Amino acid sequence: MREKGRVQNSEELIDPGCEWDDRDIQIARLIQELHDSQPPSTLLPSVMQEIRLREATWHRRLYRWARAPKVFTITPLKAIPVLLLLMGLFFTSGILFREKAFRPQEPPLIPVVFRLRLPEARSIALIGSFNGWKGEGCEMVLNQEEARWGLTIWLPEGRHEYAFIVDGKRVVTDPGAALNQDDGFGSKSSVLIVKRRDGKNA
Amino acid sequence: MNDLDDRQIIKAVLAGDVEAYSVLVKRYQTPILNLMYRLTRSHDDALDLAQETFIKTYESLGRFKDGARFFPWLYTIGINHGRNFIRKRYGKECLSLDHWAERACLPVGHEEDRACDQIDFERIDQALQKLPFDYREAVILHFHEGCSMEDIAQALQLSVSGAKMRVHRGLKKLRKIFLGDER
Q1: Which of A135, A140, A173, B19 is the most exposed place for a label (fewest CB within 10 A)?
Q2: HEC string of A150-177?
Q3: Is ipTM > 0.85 here?
């Protein structure tokens, strides 16, 4: 929009390529000098008040702040710790990534049920190569109805040796085991081969 | 501040200087208010629509294209807002803005007042109301607001040649209405 005062002659606005006569120019001048309705003094304040109200909300302020460009000044001295921190983060993330990428996959665990018919025992614990031959946490539970002790644990696929400790002092092999072997210390242990049912390797 | 280019003001507003927007309102409140008055022929409605147009425009400033001209963009928002208002208020009664303008305008004066030295602003205003909306706005934007053909094309969403045609034909139609010139 040109400034009104600058266009003194409406002929300036007439396209010279068109056929215009004096009357056209007179009409153009009349349009140019047509009186405008002047806006009331309330228009500007009411617009600005509404805008200020809208801007007062926190999310609008946050949006404005985020949109506005920011200038950061930094000296080399201040940049050094930041650079070191970034390099540290970079290398740490690289190591973590490599570790994660090359970490051998955990073998899948298979549930194994151990049972022992020894109703007269007061307590029975399962010991074996899978728990460091310590019975803590592997105490068997007596099923009164079946008069049988039982325990289910999750073991990886492979060969495991085990035995039961009865009443905390007597080591008993599993009478149901396919194989019992001498442990080299004067006792015997049972051998269990854990395999997935479908026979596939884990 | 008032001497700043529109685009600089918009940048300042977008950077968080809300008060800078008042310069744009001051600069363009008259043409927008008059556009709304031509649409509604009601001072109260024109004032409300002008206010809403500036608020709508403020809300849309983030979408203002860098390098574009502000006034035609504002005018387009105003025209669309005014059109929606007319449509909502008069619904099916008003098929188009031209239909509405014809209903709203005052009768044109008698033909004996043809001589150019007798014409007055009231009659040209009345004759303008007889013009179809797009022709009228093209003529007003060009001759009254001093807009270039490019600006008119942007404001009325036409091609530049379309804008030239509207201005040219608009003036011819206006002459016919105004002077009863049948040439």
Answers
A1: B19
A2: EEEEEEECEEEEEEEEECCCEEECCCCC
A3: no
Q: Model confidence over B107-139: pLDDT tens digits?
A: 333 344 444 444 567 788 888 888 998 899 999
Residue B164, chain A, CB below 8 Å: the answer is yes
Give tens-digit pLDDT for A4-58: 433 345 555 665 556 677 888 888 888 888 888 899 999 999 999 999 988 888 8
User: Are residues B146 and A35, on separate chains, in Cβ contact within 8 Å?
Assistant: no
- Looking up residue B145, the CATH number of its domain turns out to be 1.10.10.10
pLDDT band at B2 (very low <50, low <70, confident <90, very high): very low
Is residue A84 helix, strand or coil? helix
Number of domains in chain B: 2
Chain B residue with minimum CA distance to A52 = B18
Q: Do B55 and A1 touch (CB under 8 A)?
A: no
User: Residue B26's closest chain A neighbor by CA?
Assistant: A44
- Extents of the domains making up chain A: 1-34, 72-103, 109-194
pLDDT value at position B110? Answer: 38
| Helix, strand, coil percent values for chain B (each to nearest 5) | 75, 0, 25
The pTM score is 0.56
Chain B residue with minimum CA distance to A6:
B146
> Does the structural domain A109-194 have CATH classification 2.60.40.10?
yes
User: How many CB pairs lie under 8 A apart between chains A and B?
Assistant: 120
